[in-house]
Amino acid sequence: MKNLLKNPTVKVRIKKHIFNAIAHLVKDEQEEKLARYLLAEKYQEWEDGKTLSEWARTALVVGLDLSLSEEAP
After folding, report:
1. Are residues 68 and 30 in contact, defined by beta-carbon separation less than 8 angstroms?
2. For the chain, domain boundaries
3. Looking at the whole model, is its pTM more than 0.85?
């Protein structure tokens, strides 16, 4: 987190594609809630009606703003 706050410029690889991005702590309550539930659903088999795990409730939520231009791999 200290690195993100000092220099939010990052590179993100999705399959064979690399993108420039700016990382930020998610502060919007709705965006944060959505991210927590989506991650819990994907990685912890969370289902509607269940309580989120401690990890899903407390993990730091980081957003990435990808640039529109893609770098060559």
Report:
1. no
2. 2-71
3. no
